[in-house]
Design a protein that fits this description.
Length: 165
C-alpha cells in the first residue's frame, strides 16, 4: 500500500482513509474498470432482454465485444492472484458478480420453462459462467483463431444446446 500511495502522490494514511486494505483497493479498481467498460449498461441489456434465451445470447455477445479490451487486465489479475491473496479476493469478487448474473439468467430460463430437463439451475449457471469466461474466450479467439462472429455463433449454439430445453 505504501508503494501505491507513493505512486498516487498520497500518504499511506490517506490511502487507508479510502480503502480498508489492498483487497478493497483492487476491488475498487476492477469495479472502476467495469464502469469504464459500461458493464452497468451491459447488465441492463441482459436483464431487459425479452426472454431468457435472449438474455443468454446477450451474455455471449457482451463477452465477444468486451473481452478484447479487458484481456490485458484479466491476464494481469490472473498472474497476480496466484501470488497475492488480496488480488485473489478482488478477482473472486468480480467473478462472483458475473456468476450472479448467470444465475439470474438461468433462473429466468427456469421460470419460463426453458431450462433443459434434468439440469439443475446451479449446474446450468456454472456452465454459462465457465463457458463465457475470459479464459474460454481467450482460448478460442486468441489462441485457436476464432473470429468474433465464430465465437458468438458457436458459443451461442453450445450454450443453447447445453442449458435450454
Amino acid at each position: 500500500m505504501g508503494a501505491i500511495a507513493k505512486e498516487a502522490g498520497l500518504s499511506r494514511q490517506a490511502l487507508y482513509l479510502v480503502f480498508a486494505d489492498k483487497a478493497d483497493l483492487f476491488v475498487a479498481l476492477l469495479r472502476y474498470v467495469d464502469g469504464q467498460r459500461g458493464i452497468v449498461k451491459e447488465q441492463a441489456k441482459i436483464r431487459d432482454a425479452p426472454t431468457g434465451v435472449d438474455a443468454l445470447l446477450a451474455i455471449v455477445d457482451r463477452q465477444a465485444r468486451l473481452n478484447p479490451d479487458f484481456k490485458p487486465l484479466a491476464d494481469t489479475f490472473e498472474l497476480l492472484r496466484r501470488q497475492d491473496p488480496a488480488v485473489e479476493q478482488a478477482w473472486r469478487d468480480r467473478q462472483g458478480d458475473r456468476l450472479e448474473g448467470c444465475r439470474v439468467v438461468v433462473a429466468r430460463l427456469a421460470a419460463e420453462g426453458r431450462l433443459r430437463p434434468g439440469l439443475d439451475s446451479a449446474a446450468a449457471a456454472d456452465l454459462v459462467w465457465t463457458l463465457t469466461s475470459v479464459s474460454a474466450w481467450d482460448d478460442l479467439v486468441a489462441r485457436r483463431g476464432w473470429t468474433d462472429a465464430e465465437y458468438r455463433e458457436r458459443m451461442s449454439a453450445l450454450l443453447l444446446a447445453a442449458v435450454v430445453a
